[in-house]
Amino acid sequence: MAVKKKTTAETEKITVKSKAAVVSSAGGGREATAVSAADEQMKRFEEAIKLFRSQNFAQAKLAFERAIEGPQREVAHNAKLHIAMCERRLQSENVNFATPEEHYDYGIARLNSRDLPAARRHFEAALALAPGGDHIYYGLALCCGLSGDLQGCYENLKRAIDLQPRNRLAARQDPDFNVIGQHPVFHQLLYEKP
């Protein structure tokens, strides 16, 4: 009886789990242990990814460090890359700003990434340093509106318009204010003459 040899294309189609079944049926206990170690490594990496996506960078870093250990070099490499990303993100949380513009710029960056609590803190810190900054009130109004604080949004937007009337036109054209602008009070503020 002739044994048919598998082509390289057929061999590549075999998944890790099917390789484990082939190896264990052939009597290779060491290889089966390596596959289960690879599964465990992948499981640790996936858990670390969940922590990373939930922005829990300190715990994610520890989980990625555990995911480095294992037979899969690609998983270990990706874990090392994610550790570096976690470290950068943990360092960026400890940034100190001296000027209102630095707080404002960082607040805008946080707003764009929809980290609304951090954006609000930086807008408020900028206002403490520069209470006449119309652009800061505008950013804070947008932050309040996106987080559902319509009263804060209205007050800050009104203050921004009082300080600089061109903010009325900016808010009309700002897509982030589209939904908020449909509210009757905001419609009056944005479209009716004072």
Tell me what you see in this structure.
The chain has 194 residues and is mainly alpha-helical. It folds into 2 domains: 29-92; 100-191, Alpha Horseshoe (Serine Threonine Protein Phosphatase 5, Tetratricopeptide repeat). It is 76% helix and 0% strand. The protein contains 12 helices and no strands. The model is unreliable at 6-28 (pLDDT under 50).
Concise synopsis of the structure shown:
By secondary structure, this protein is mostly helical. It has twelve helices and no strands.
The Rg value, from CA coordinates, equals 27 Å
Count of separate DSSP helical elements = 12
Q: What is the CATH architecture term of the largest domain?
A: Alpha Horseshoe
The fraction of residues in strands falls at under 5%
Helix content: over 70%
Structural class: mainly alpha
What's the SSE blueprint?
Layout: H1 8-13, H2 16-25, H3 29-53, H4 57-68, H5 73-92, H6 100-112, H7 116-129, H8 134-146, H9 150-163, H10 166-173, H11 178-181, H12 184-191
Task: Looking at this protein, list some descriptive labels.
12 helices, mainly alpha, 194 residues, 0% strand, Serine Threonine Protein Phosphatase 5, Tetratricopeptide repeat, 2 domains, single chain
